From TrEMBL, chains A, B, C, D:
Gene3D superfamilies: Tetracycline Repressor, domain 2 (1.10.357.10). Residues 9-69 form the HTH tetR-type domain. This is TetR family transcriptional regulator. SUPFAM superfamilies: Homeodomain-like, Tetracyclin repressor-like, C-terminal domain. GO terms for molecular function: DNA binding. Keywords: DNA-binding. Residues 32-51 bind DNA. The keyword Transcription does not apply. It comes from the Bacteria.
Length: 208, 208, 208, 208
DNA sequence: AATGAATGAGTTTTCATTCAT
DNA sequence: GATGAATGAAAACTCATTCAT
């Protein structure tokens, strides 16, 4: 009985991982159920047994994806750092997380292409919301009080901006590389981008 | 003769417009050739007559899309404005263009999902490159000389950042709205976003 | 398990038989996958499930066709007969096999129209080679030693000639009938042809 | 006016030649009207203008093909040669004509696949019949009278046999080459085949 | 829990043919 | 006589999903 349960868990995890890769690579429309089963090394019928249909499977992948990044964000402990360091750390974390999880970007693109309807039904919508928003609000408040940050900064706007600077560069990496004729993921290009983004965010935040 | 030619052009244009909308709405994988023909009000066979297959049609759409935004960028005449105004205008233009052309965002996402292979073969790759990069370089240089801008700013990085700030907000609008539980496209939210982005970019650029 | 396996085998066999008939009747280019499925009484999708595509299905049919005639040739036991009888038997067998398997002729024509590329990839090319060539060589050798056959006869040439005499008559039966204005498959015409062919081959082989 | 007529004739001839090649290469089912037009360097509409449809075009090609070989046969003048030489010449002619007109073989195969229905309607059916049959009858008669040929030989059977020996070898050249693992069209193989065929036919005919 | 066989409804693509000039 | 544009029907092939065990 226990054995069976463990098998079941393992199978579900294998399916989720395979589905995540397939959806990330081809989008929701381009993903193939057959390929997911093959990637997972399991019978196709099992996908339906555990996840009902392709759409629900996509939703499960999305939820897991959000859960993962939120867990990581929670480990940042920005509240323990001086304001400027905290912001810098957030910029770096965002950049590195996107770099190491390229599937996150394409999954979000797919979710948005479908107008986020896969999140609508998500019961754990709470889980989706970033715990960072509140933390960031505190950091900004602290910075303002200490006189290092400008005031009137909306933490949501800032959070979105920090994400956007990394996201666009990495998500559109292929078209940008084609247009500019240079490899945006070369080591030097990477560190220049990170440094630029930090400059932009801190240049904006730091009080004159 | 003229008539016929004009009809051919009109048909091709109708197909391109229909395809652009369909690809934008459903992505490359989710787009349906039948629907494109229906949208265009033309026989499906004609799509193949003019564009060979779905992939080439997508490529044609992409090229036209780039051509359009590049044409608009060319009309900005940033070189005639004071540096800070020029940058502000660019931020506003980018924001408004994306707002008015939501298809641009999803098309680029699709192109990137497919690793920009549809641009690889594009003979007119030159056309893809933004004419703004050089203009922006001049603006930055002027600003630095006038003592209003900081030095050492890479125009490509800045261009990408300006784009990213708008792009992420609008492209991921649905997931973000779901997460934050607020409508990011409400009039007030829009003006707040534009104002925030301008603050970020100019806050970064303006010399202390 | 057994049941299922047997069903799979039965389905594949039904598809192969239906495909053989359809290809024989219409050629590779004229054959219709829909019709094959209908003839087999199975879902069209299954053809692709088992044989990938139309080309591979044609290849499978060809291989099976060759296997069948080779099996029959093996049952002839020409080595047990006096040389002249052995050759006579081969002429008769060839004639009758072609008569009873008209699909063999058109399938070979199709294969040749496509430059036999469907045999190129066939791993079991060995199976295609007739076991008769060696047997025929022995028969010719025996006949020569016994003084009844002329010497210097290449068994491959002879084999091809025996086949050609029947093949051309039957494969081109329709045009020949149209040209000569007589039914080449009427009973009398058949026996006359067989008798003529035997005369030709033995008239050539028998030592003067 | 005259000019026009000449253009029209030239166009029709170009279409026929292109169609002959296309049909020979791909069979009736595999031939493409577009490709025929392209090969002919003419507008597709013109094929329909002159030949009504694909089927009628195929019929026209067939008729022309028969006309051509019949014309050549008429030039043989077998009646002027000693009987054995006449037969030898016919074997050689058949072999060489097939070698030089590989399209003849595949066109006949296509015609037969379609049960020669394209000849049925042919008004000039008379043209199809070989003038050689009668000539060959005379040659056989002469040979018998001179005591060099055996008696009781049906000229039609002999004609078909002579054709079959060459036809099968050349028409099935690809499968035979694959099966026997040797190139049947290599120069040495060619001359051996011709010599073998002559031996077979004369070995059969020559009185003991 | 797991799986190979089977399927209906699409999906892209092709093709012979016709229209309009 | 000649042609580019257009089309309806059908072709090969695909896909998510279900059946039966």
């Amino acid at each position: 009985m226990e054995e069976r349960q463990r098998d079941a868990d393992r199978s579900q995890a294998a399916i989720l991982a395979a589905a995540r890769d397939e959806f990330a690579e081809h989008g929701l429309g381009g993903a193939r159920v057959d390929r997911i089963a093959e990637r997972a090394g399991l019978n196709k019928r099992l996908l339906y047994y555990y996840f009902d249909d392709k759409e629900k499977l996509f939703q499960a992948v999305l939820e897991q994806t959000y859960r993962d990044i939120r867990d990581r964000e929670r480990e940042l402990h920005l509240e323990d750092l001086p304001p400027a360091d905290a912001v810098k750390r957030l910029v770096e974390f965002t950049w590195n997380y996107y770099l190491e999880h390229p599937e996150f970007l394409t999954l979000l693109n797919s979710a948005n292409l479908h107008r986020a309807r896969h999140l609508q039904g998500s019961k754990r919508a709470r889980e989706l919301n970033s715990p960072l928003i509140e933390t960031l609000a505190h950091v900004l408040e602290r910075g303002r009080k200490e006189g290092v940050f400008r005031g009137g900064v909306d933490p949501v706007q800032l959070y979105v901006s920090i994400a956007g600077l990394s996201y666009f560069y990495l998500s559109n990496n292929h078209t940008l590389s084609a247009i500019f004729g240079r490899d945006l993921l070369a080591p030097k290009a990477r560190s220049e981008r990170l440094s630029h983004m930090t400059d932009v965010i801190l240049g904006y935040l730091l009080a004159p």
